[in-house]
Specification:
The chain is mainly α. The protein has two domains: about 10-50; about 65-155, Up-down Bundle (Four Helix Bundle (Hemerythrin (Met), subunit A)). It has helices at about 5-50, 55-65, 70-105, 110-140, 145-160. It is elongated, with a radius of gyration of 28 Å. The termini are far apart. About 0% of the residues are buried.
Length: about 180
């Protein structure tokens, strides 16, 4: 090998080493930036929940220009509703787990599956009734002008509730090959 080829090889190795180091540093910087962003979002979300509910609820309360007494009542009702619904939601979660077990069994017990479906429907109806009662109680604390705004905002929120969140999938309209009625 000539001296020029050796120098070219050494130069090539130096360039490769620097390129690898640069790539490592860029990767680490990107990873750090990503983790900082995720942490900040989690903290903002946690802070929002600990200070009285979701961002949407805060926006509604600000739009309504609630008095201190109304804000206090809203918070009291929100906490009471959450307290009432929590055990029901926990039971729903247990029912969904049982349903997975029942429906994936070697020989599914349709009687048990149907019974669990009925129990789940009852729990969902009970939750809906609690939420409806809470909604009406909230409305009663508002002035007529606030009630109109509240009702229009509530109508807009209903469409948002149906959107899949995070990794959840939405429900389709039938199976492939199934014709629409």
């Amino acid at each position: 090998m000539s001296i020029n080829q050796e120098n070219e090889n050494k130069l090539g190795q130096i360039i490769k080493t620097k390129a690898m180091k640069t790539t490592k540093y860029l990767f680490l910087i990107g990873l750090l930036a990503l983790s900082t962003t995720v942490f900040a979002q989690q903290e903002r979300h946690r802070r929002g929940l600990s200070q009285g509910g979701s961002e949407a609820n805060k926006g509604i309360r600000m739009d309504l220009k609630l008095s201190e007494a109304q804000q206090s009542k809203f918070e009291e009702l929100r906490l009471g509703t959450q307290k009432a619904i929590l055990p029901l939601r926990n039971q729903l979660g247990e029912n969904h787990a049982k349903m997975r077990t029942l429906t994936t069994a070697e020989s599914p017990d349709m009687k048990a599956i149907n019974k669990l479906i009925d129990k789940t429907s009852q729990l969902e109806a009970e939750i809906a009734k609690i939420r409806a009662a809470n909604h009406q109680t909230l409305r009663m604390t508002l002035t007529e002008e606030q009630r109109i705004k509240f009702d229009s905002k509530a109508h807009m929120r209903k469409g948002q509730d149906r959107k899949p969140r995070g990794g959840q999938r939405g429900h389709g309209h039938g199976f492939k090959g199934q014709s629409e009625k």
